[in-house]
Amino acid sequence: MSQYLTEKVQEKRKAIDLSHHLSDLSRARATSPLKGLARYFGRPDLISLAGGMPNEAYFPFAAISGDALVPDSFSLASNQSESSLSWFWKLFGSRKEKTTSISIPKYPATKDDITLKVALQYGTATGLPQLQKFINELVEKIYQPAYSDWTTLVQTGNTDGWGRAVTTLCNPGEAFITEDWTYPSALAGSAPHGIHPVGVLMDDQGMRSEELRKLLAEWDESVRGCKRPHVMYTVPVGQNPTGVTMGLDRKKEIYDICVEYDVIIVEDDPYYFLQMGSYGAKLDRASQAMHADPESWLSSLAPSYVKYVIDYQGRVIRLDTFSKTIAPGSRLGFYTCNPRFAERLERAGEVSTQAPCGFGQSLIAQLLTTWKYEGYVRWLQGLAVQYKSRRDFLLDALREEFHMQVSVGTTSSWKGCTVYTASAKPKTGSSRMLEKRAYGSKALFSLVPPTSGMFVWLKLHFENVPGFQPDEEPNTMEMKLWVKLAEAGVLIGPGRYFASDQEDASPVDGHFRIAFSYASEEDFTKAVKIFGEVLREFFQEQ
Ligand SMILES: Cc1ncc(COP(=O)(O)O)c(C=O)c1O
After folding, report:
1. How does pLDDT run across 81-94, given as a tens digit for each residue?
2. In what order do the strands lie in the sheet with 151-155?
3. Percentages of the chain per state (helix, strand, coil), in multiples of 5
4. Residue 206 host element (H or E)
């Protein structure tokens, strides 16, 4: 019987002891003496003269109230115009947004109330108990961790989550494993600590397992200048910047290699609920309705690494954030990991942020407890449909602007995927001639439609720019084109910003990351037109 099945059949075990991964910094952390007093705070008969707490009578907020959208504000039917016209309805008031009021009083009316007395006071790094309870329910029902003593802990968003995790696990001079292309702030956060990334080649599911095994098996400390990495940073869903998503089988393969080489996985997963399925032609979309039943929808999502079929040892630190599902300004997220790591991360939190901001915690906790688990899941479903419509709109607009040839990928990174390769559409001529010219014209860029997240990743074919020199300085073409686009009024992400190895970005394969998460349909349409004109000029395809 496989290890996974054996684990499933048996009673859930506790996480194994992985404390040998802790960094010197993390081991040296003691409990903050003042925070150590906090465990007495809940006692009703306690007269506290110990802490430097301001009396809540001096908090100028008597209550905080707000209007929150209702969980089913966004339809489950894929209907782009509903979202894009919402500004119009709001402006003219003909279809008002449906809201529910939430209010946080300073003092409790019942014992379970979220109050400003507590939320705005000094507290522990574990955050508001009501929020913790909601988060635990979410993790238990959705991610379904494999071991019994999994623990959650609030943080101030995944950037902070990774920042704290990397210094808790790595010493200066060490390396960590990551995807070849990755989230730049994760690199910028670890670099000043002298902790550097080692990229692993990717394909349409993200990190390639055979490449990971090769890297670890062939690691030569004397050549690399540091010991074999024992930490991985990965973005497995709607990967930033490439948009790819890793399925269960690949996750199991990667996990098994991490068990074999004793590697801790830090799973940064902000786009988990923005899994939207494949991109299809307009006509096919009606038949691709989202699963209306929340449970079927949740079980259709690629599972987290912490799920019972994968992380049976407790070697994954999962990072969740409310940035993409509620609002980035909430600066709120949470870890799910083994209790030993959670305790060390808590120690790191209590001497830096102390705890996430009380305004954000109380508002989000009140919103979530008002919506309840079912309401939040319904909200998330609605968001997934919104992002799907946005992705479809952008890809449709690119297909309008360019001639797109559809093929099955043959390169190692896109093997077997549906690849769209764009060439310039001729501007004038008879339709027969246009077709002929379009067919014969050169490739400008290629893409694989993403199935999750917020980004479309373009591979530019600079080899088709007249006068292209293969030995030109790396990234020069990419930046030249990027500047031309910026000057023409369209700002997109230059691929080089996302390279895990800044030295090794290939000059031929320039890349751009386009976010479909923010702009209006009108702006997308304008931007794609400008993109088309600038590209035609750059590739001299008039
Ligand atoms: C992979 C990844 N991690 C983290 C973040 C930032 O998350 P947070 O706002 O929670 O710090 C982003 C946002 O762009 C991201 O793409």
Report:
1. 454 445 455 555 55
2. 151-155, 333-337, 316-321, 264-268, 231-234, 175-179, 196-200
3. 40, 15, 40
4. strand 206-207
Please name the residue whose Cα sits nearest to atom 7 of ligand 1.
158
The rounded mean pLDDT for the chain is: 90
Q: Is the CB of 314 under 6 A from ligand 1?
A: no
The model's pLDDT over 108-158, given as tens digits with 9 standing for 90+, comes to 999 899 999 999 999 899 999 999 999 999 999 999 999 999 999 999 999
Query: Is the shortest distance between the CB of 323 and ligand 1 below 6 Å?
Result: yes
The CB of 183 under 6 Å from ligand 1? The reply is yes
Does the global pTM surpass 0.85?
Answer: yes
How many other CB atoms are found less than 10 A from the CB of residue 76? 17
Number of Cβ within 10 Å of residue 234's Cβ equals 25
For the segment 228-252, what is each residue's pLDDT rounded down to a tens digit?
A: 999 999 999 999 999 999 999 999 9
Q: Which domains, and CATH codes, for the chain?
A: 53-71+82-386 (3.40.640.10), 389-540 (3.90.1150.10)
Ranges assigned E (strand) in 36-150 = 63-69, 99-105
Contact 408, 428 (CB under 8 A): no
Q: Among 183, 318, 335, 454, which is best to mutate for testing ligand 1, by the most ligand atoms less than 8 A from CB? A: 183
Mark residue 396 as left, alpha or beta (left: phi above 0; alpha: psi -120 to 50; beta: remaining): alpha
Mean pLDDT of 247-272: 98
Collapse the DSSP code of 399 into the 3-class scheme (helix H, G, I; strand E, B; otherwise coil) and give the result.
Answer: helix
The length of the chain is: 542
CA pair distance 398, 532, nearest whole angstrom: 8
At 463-522, the pLDDT tens digits run 999 988 877 665 688 999 999 999 999 999 999 999 998 666 555 579 999 999 999 999
Phi, psi of 422 (to 5 degrees): -95, 135
Least Cα distance to 219 among 180, 279, 175 occurs for 175
